[in-house]
Design a protein that fits this description.
This protein is of the alpha+beta class and about 725 residues long. It contains 13 helices and 36 strands. Helix content is about 25%, strand content about 25%.
């Protein structure tokens, strides 16, 4: 089916790095990743590969002699790098003022009015298909007056309205109409009399649908409503793409197919109630069975408590949002992964799925294992320069750089997630089964770098990005650690290259100035620097977990890491609600620019974790408190991004009209933010866990229960003095020094 361009990454398109046409890339993306807007099925095994198996790669190539730099000596910063001409965009329906119920593959999108009028995104969805677009309730010929709309859980919303039936009752309503709408395709309509006299109430529900694909809705190219037919206790619609039905309980007294109308008549005594339940189904699909419910969820139901009541609500909502976004690969039912976000990106997006799985490792390793297996089946199996790469779309990079390749990011994330999942307790057998795919990622890294030092963009003439070098450096060091653990060759070459990269990066990527300098965002082909400071610099602080609770070394030395911490904590980057995507004083800054000024929750959480690990607690605390305040304003359900406007007394964060909410990386960021306070650093193979809490205890006392290390429950408490205590752990797990 047609997929809309994800609004969070405008201009995304498939990009494996290979010289393919756009049409070829679109076909590859649809078959491998399900990337884009709309609900898509999990990926299938790559052509020519056996389901559930990965082919062993050739040994990692021996390291070639490396030059200290593959670029020209530093020159004057480049003021602006021209961007490619963007593709034509469409006016996407807004999401900031909608209530989105999610239990994939089901969605229910509503406005605060409660009525589904068939406008914009409104409706019930199943697997990216709008199975019902219109559901309008009238009582005694009147529509209820909306008085309240709220989410009661990630997968359901409650709407309350009132109706005046009697002409002489004054301003008081006679009837309360409550509608509870579920993502699984059910809606319960309850009428409750608040009148002192008996009521005789004709009730009508007008239904309709266009069976439109979410991509067509996003592109504004939907067709007219389809004609209905009476079917059992409700109505049925048929189209070229399938059929949908609505069944009612109790059955209606009358059903008019031509008008798409179901009718009842109820008699209510004073204080009496009556209910109607509607069940919306896509023919042949059966009821929605969300992966994240009950024992099928790979995520532990962790809880938080403490002096700050926001921590409890944030962790609970984050876990609920993650569970709602879970998808199962139908060809491999034991493998689950996270969709990127609702409503636009409800399929597999490898970079986002891997990132979210990594941030949720404190909730167990089952999600990481399922995500790694699912993504491994998308890995390019063909020999050649792109052997071992994980394909992904291109991602808009803001005003100063061309779109980047998320396939590169995903390929570098794969061995990192596998290595860290092992530290959190992924069984050795599962790790070993996934090791060949990680080796292929590392082979791709070494092959792509070749005799140079830097990992360039995969397209000719592409820049050398700061964050790509951080991802590559981390992958090399954690990958080497993984190879050594299983007696595989290639670790020495990866460490040698990482050392060469550190030396070259410190010389080539730092811009000196009177304020102490800053890292460059990128270097273009002729060696000039792109000087703009943005949130991508936070990846320089994310070095990855090694054994014994130690983090891998970073690309920056201590003095420059301290300077970066000051910059991230300054008013140009810290909006008071979180970290801006681009500094407020930089050319091209826009508070709503999704890569050029908006706050992206994922990068704020990575900044908080990196700053806290480096000992920069003042800056980490400011960003943490800012995003917690934003979470409270958003009902603790963090969107993927919101405006980077400066926080002032009495202000509130401004929503981005096209942001996914819930979003996998934003929900996972809530987990990372809170577990960072305890500084949990496990080493399950060594049987130890080290705690490095934030000593200033910025939120007072906090307790985290129901986490998982080595497959067993783990609970920790951090007191008001910043001292951490383990309250529950696996047998034999020792506290590290």
């Amino acid at each position: 089916m047609h997929q809309p361009t994800p609004p969070s990454d405008a201009g995304d398109r498939p990009d494996s790095g290979a010289p393919e046409s756009l049409a070829d890339q679109d076909r590859r993306l649809a078959s491998l990743t399900g990337q884009g807007g709309g609900l898509s099925q999990p990926s299938q095994p790559a052509e020519g590969s056996a389901p559930g198996r990965v082919r062993r790669p050739p040994p990692l190539p021996s390291p070639s002699p490396l030059r200290s730099s593959s670029l020209s000596p530093p020159q004057s910063p480049v003021p602006h790098t021209p961007r490619p001409t963007p593709r034509r965009s469409v006016e996407l329906p807004t999401t900031h003022n909608t209530l989105i119920c999610v239990a994939l593959p089901g969605l229910a999108v509503s406005t605060e009015q409660g009525q589904l009028n068939g406008r914009g995104l409104e409706g019930f969805y199943r697997a990216g298909r709008r199975v019902l677009s219109r559901c309008q309730v009238r009582v005694a010929g009147r529509e209820p007056l909306a008085v309240q709309a709220r989410m009661t859980a990630t997968d359901r919303a409650r709407f309350v309205g009132t109706v005046r039936v009697s002409p002489d009752c004054g301003p008081d309503p006679d009837l309360v109409v409550e509608r509870t709408r579920h993502a699984d395709g059910t809606e319960r309509i309850t009428l409750r009399s608040v009148s002192w006299r008996p009521l005789r109430l004709p009730v009508e529900v007008a239904l309709g649908t266009d069976l439109a694909d979410l991509g067509a809705i996003a592109a504004g190219s939907t067709g007219p409503e389809l004609p209905a037919s009476v079917h059992d206790s409700g109505l049925r619609w048929s189209g070229a793409t399938g059929n949908s039905t609505v069944a009612a309980d109790p059955p209606p007294a009358d059903a008019l197919a031509s008008a798409g109308l179901l009718r009842w008549e109820f008699e209510l005594p004073p204080g009496g109630t009556a209910s109607v339940e509607l069940r919306v189904r896509l023919d042949g699909a059966g009821p929605v069975r969300a992966v994240g419910h009950g024992a099928t969820s790979p995520l532990a139901s962790a809880r938080a408590a403490g002096d700050d009541p926001r921590v409890q609500a944030l962790l609970r909502t984050s876990v609920e949002d993650l569970q709602a976004l879970l998808l199962r690969d139908p060809a491999h039912p034991s493998d689950t992964h996270l969709a990127a976000g609702a409503p636009w990106r409800c399929g597999l997006a490898p970079a986002e799925s891997l990132t979210a799985a990594r941030m949720t490792l404190p909730l167990g390793t089952r999600l990481a294992a399922g995500t790694l297996r699912t993504v491994a089946r998308t890995q390019l199996p063909l020999s050649g320069a792109q052997f071992g790469m994980i394909p992904g779309p291109r991602r808009d990079a803001g005003a100063h750089l061309p779109p980047g390749c998320t396939g590169t990011e995903a390929t570098l994330l794969f061995p990192v997630l596998l290595a860290e999942a092992r530290r959190w307790g992924l069984p050795e057998q599962e790790t070993q089964e996934l090791l060949p795919a990680a080796e292929r990622c590392l082979t791709w890294l070494r092959t792509t770098v070749g005799d140079g030092t830097y990992l360039r963009d995969p397209h000719p003439g592409g820049p050398v990005r700061c964050e790509t070098q951080a991802h590559a450096h981390r992958a090399a060091l954690l990958g080497a650690d993984l190879l050594d653990a299983f007696g595989r060759p290639g670790a020495a070459g990866l460490r040698q290259w990482a050392q060469e990269l550190r030396t070259a990066f410190r010389a080539d990527f730092w811009i000196g100035d009177l304020g102490g300098g800053r890292p460059a965002a990128a270097r273009v082909q002729d060696g000039r620097l792109v000087p703009h400071l943005g949130a991508t610099a936070v990846h320089l602080l994310d070095t990855g977990l090694l054994g014994g609770g130690e983090y891998a070394p970073g690309l920056l030395d201590k003095a420059r890491a301290e300077q970066l911490a000051r910059l991230l904590g300054g008013p140009a980057m810290d909006s008071g609600w979180g970290l801006r995507g681009l500094g407020a004083k930089e050319p091209g800054f826009s508070p709503f620019g999704h890569r050029s000024g908006a706050v992206r929750v994922q990068e704020t959480a990575i900044a908080v974790a990196g700053l806290a690990a480096g000992g920069y607690e003042k800056e980490a605390t400011s960003l943490l408190r800012g995003v917690l305040a934003a979470a409270e304003a958003f009902g603790h359900r963090l969107p993927e991004m919101y405006a980077g406007e400066q926080r002032t007394d009495g202000s509130a964060p401004l929503p981005h009209p096209a942001a996914c909410r819930p979003a996998a990386t934003a929900a996972a960021a809530g987990v990372l933010l809170l577990t960072t306070l305890a500084g949990i650093r496990p080493d399950a193979p060594a049987g130890t866990v080290t705690l490095r809490p934030v000593r200033s205890a910025p939120l007072g006392e906090i307790g985290l229960t129901g986490l998982r290390i080595a497959g067993a429950p783990f609970s920790v408490r951090v007191g008001r003095l910043g001292v951490a205590m383990v309250e529950e752990a696996a047998d034999g797990l020792q506290l590290g020094a």
